[in-house]
Structure formats: structure tokens, C-alpha cells
Amino acid sequence: MNGRIDSRLAAQIVEQVTNVLPFDINVMDAKGSVVASTDPTRVGTFHSGAQMVLGSSREVEIDDATAARITNVRPGVNLPLVVRGKLIGVVGLTGAPDEVRRFGKLLQGMAQLILEREQLTLELRREERHKEEFIRQAINERSESSREDLAAWAERLGIDLTVTRCAVLCRFTFNQTDQNALLSELEQVQAHLTAQRPDFMVARSSLSELAIFREFEVDAANPYQAAETAHKVLHEVKTLIASVCKRSFLLALGVALPNIDGLRQSWTCAINTLQAGEAQRSNGAGEHCFSYYDHRLAVLFSTLPDNWALAELLLPLRRLLDTERDAPLLQHTLNVWYEHEAHPTRTAKALGIHRNTLDYRLKKINDATGLNLSTFEDSVMMYIALRRMTCN
């Protein structure tokens, strides 16, 4: 609103008030021009009564005798519109002052309520934009904002960084032909989330993604509670988004952490969790919501540094993939083997093969990799290599 009454707001005042009061109504801006009226011919004209109100900041009544002496004015009452202590316009009722006087305060009150609501809405939108930019800077590894700058920014926005929060990444499906529709839907989803859950911090992180931060209570002594809480958070976010958006989407929840660094780390964790979840979906799973607390090992493996130690860890598996003609089949056998906790009978049943066939495949894997999967250390080494390679 910026201290002004535009034609849209003025028309809204006229429309709402005419449903209550059976009189002609005029709304004038801070220059005395009529910006909305029940009489369309008056819009754009100068209102002398409004000019008197603007000059005195007080209510002005105009009777028949006064109206006869002043150009372009009719009998009625004219009242100042004050929002946050600032005079921004005038509202008037046309008619004999004795007839319309008692309705003047009602008109003034309704008009100021509409203007104050608009001012509050604009302030909330402005605050949300500032929060959105803060989130983008906080999670962007290439951000030029220092840790101290971000902390000061958070304080100005009233964001308590000591609170533990988790990041939820929401990725929407789209193609090149419906980018405009996706942008509109993302704005709708973002507005819905912030309206329904003002405690959420929401920002668009890319053309097809939303970053959502939510407070998350963690009991360090009860890790199972964290996993349960994560499921509830994902279900809540999924329900809110699905209520306004029919487009398919994926959700991934990162580790819950406090402080500025925690925002970026949780967001990175959510990205890695989504990658781990999608890798499992490619193996036949049909989930659309993924939690770090359900994929801890896969996520942690994906963050291993790309150095000589990782190359050494992956060497046996790479040897298998590079030398064996049936490498894809053997890799699938390994995945099913670990999914069934290295239990031969359950693994063979899941693969639909005889137990002897499974033993033959495992021997080929042992021969090609130089590992002995019947030993704990070699089995763990192969498991880590599989999970890391799958996440990449």
C-alpha cells in the first residue's frame, strides 16, 4: 500500500460498504481525487470536501448551503482515513448530514479496517520475501554472506537459530512445456504452507524445488523417536502440499540440527537423502517420501570424500564390474543378498533361484573381487562399496 490508496483498494472499500449502507460512497486519495465511487462519473474528479479534510485532519460536514457555494461538492459527511498514524485519504457519504452522520463512523471504521488489513498483508509478504532470501543464502554453499552476517540477518527477522530444525526438500515433476504452470503451482504451494504453518520457513531453491525448514524435537537418548518424528513431519508436509497441488512430487527430510551451519548441513543431507531414496526406487521401491533417519548409512556413505581411501574401498567392486560378463546380474544378487541380511534361503527365494545357484554366484563374486563374503570385515567392505556406488 505504501501510504497510498490505489483504485483496487478503493473499489474494495466501496464494494464492501455498499452491502451495508444505502448511500452513495466516495473514496478519495491523499490528493483529494476520487478513486472509487458508487457514482462512476465522479471517479477521477477533484473532491473539495476531501481537500478540506486533508487540510484539517478532521471530519468535515457539508450541508446544502455549503454545497451551493463550493464547486464539485455535494451534501454529506467526509472523514479522514488514518492508518498507522498516517493520513492517507478520505471517505465520504453523500446525503443530508443529519441522515448520514450516524453512519459516518461505521464507514470510516470499515474502510480503515480494510486498509490496515492490506498493510498487514503487505508487511507479511515482505517479511516472507526476506525470509526466503535468507534461506537461499543460508543453504547456498557459494553464498557471499558470512556466518556473522547470516546470524545478524536471522536476528532481524526474529528467527531463533538455537532451535533445532530439519530441512525438507520438495521436488516437483515437470517438463519443458509446463514451466510456467509449475511456477504458478510452486507459488500456490508456498503461500499455502506459510498460511497454514507460519512457523515453517519456505523458499524456492530452484525451478522445481522448495526448501522447507521446520522445528524438530530430537531426543538424543532415543534415536527411534527421531525416526518416528521424521515420518510425522513428512506426512504433514505431504498432506499440506497434496491439498493444493495435484502434480507428483518427492520429499526428502535431512538430519535435524541447530544454528546457521545446521541449516546448510540439513539441506545438504536432504539432497543426499533424496538421491539415496531415488536409488532405492530404481530397485523397485515405490516410495515418494524419504527420511535421513531411514537411510542413514546410504546418506553417510554418499558423503565419503573422493580420495585414495574411497578408491581403495571401491576397488573390489570395480574389479567385479570390469571383469565379469555377468556383472549386472551379480551386482543385483549382492543387493538382494544384503536386503535379506545375507540369509541364503531368503535371498534365493527372493531371486527365484535354487540355493545352489546362489552359492555359485557368490563364489564368482568372491573369485572376482578377492573378498570372502562369509567374513564380517569383507562383507561390510562390499556393503559400503555397493551403497556408495548406488548413491552416485
UniProtKB/TrEMBL annotation:
The keyword Coiled coil applies. Keywords: Coiled coil. Residues 110-137 form a coiled coil. It comes from the Bacteria. Belongs to the CdaR family. Residues 146-275 form the CdaR GGDEF-like domain. Residues 5-137 form the Putative sugar diacid recognition domain. This is Sugar diacid recognition domain-containing protein. The keyword Coiled coil applies. It comes from Paraburkholderia sabiae. InterPro entries: CdaR-like_regulators, CdaR_GGDEF, Diacid_rec, Homeodomain-like_sf, PucR_C-HTH_dom, PucR_C-HTH_sf. Residues 330-387 form the PucR C-terminal helix-turn-helix domain. SUPFAM superfamilies: Homeodomain-like.
